Amino acid sequence: SSRKGAQPFADPHPQRTDPCSRRSLPAMSEEYRLRSRNAMLVKDDVGKGKPTVYDLPPEGHAFGRCDPPDKEGAREVTMHWAAHVPRRKPGPECQDFRKLNRLAAQSGVTNASQLADWRTTNDVKLVAKGPAGSMPKVIPSDVIPSFAYGKKSRPSTPIASVMGNHYGLEQEELLNFQYKKLADSPSGKRVVKMTAASTRQIEHARSARQLVDNPLPPKEHFKMAKFKNVPGKMTADQLGRSPMRSASLPNL
What we know:
mainly alpha, disordered N terminus
């Protein structure tokens, strides 16, 4: 016997009533909803997509139509060049259709069937045309197929020698050879090779020293020949050159 006022235990499978038949039916569980594979009954979880109700291919399956691989890929297209083969020019063994049509029209041919019959008995060969105007000029590539036009560019940079420090090693060997040659010389003196700038600088220094030791005579001021022997008419005081004159007095 239960105590008075105690609540009964909750049924894990509550009963629901069908409004049509008034019968009590068990509630639908989540497991049944997932197993039902009904798009209307399947519920999604928070932050996740709704589970699929269709039979999908396994993981790694690629959808769409699979096209057959191309026989020529990018490597074949870019690395193999198909040279142009020009069409053979018509020769004397070909028929001259313009002349044939003209002669057929003159003979009274009016349709294609008559033209076909008329051509079986008439054959007009093509006559090669002569060169129009002056003869074409001969260019170097006609005589030498491997002749290249344009300005010759500089040779490519020897990257292998630059990265391998070959030039540095050559200069080091040359410098060691010069030092060894200087050490083996009997005098032991090193001759300094003068440059053009240093030679000019030494010459200028020598000429300046000669001017200091042997100065040139003072240059006479320019004066017209007719005024060279004419004496001045103003005194030193009038010219303002007197030694007793004050420097503060104005020149009137």
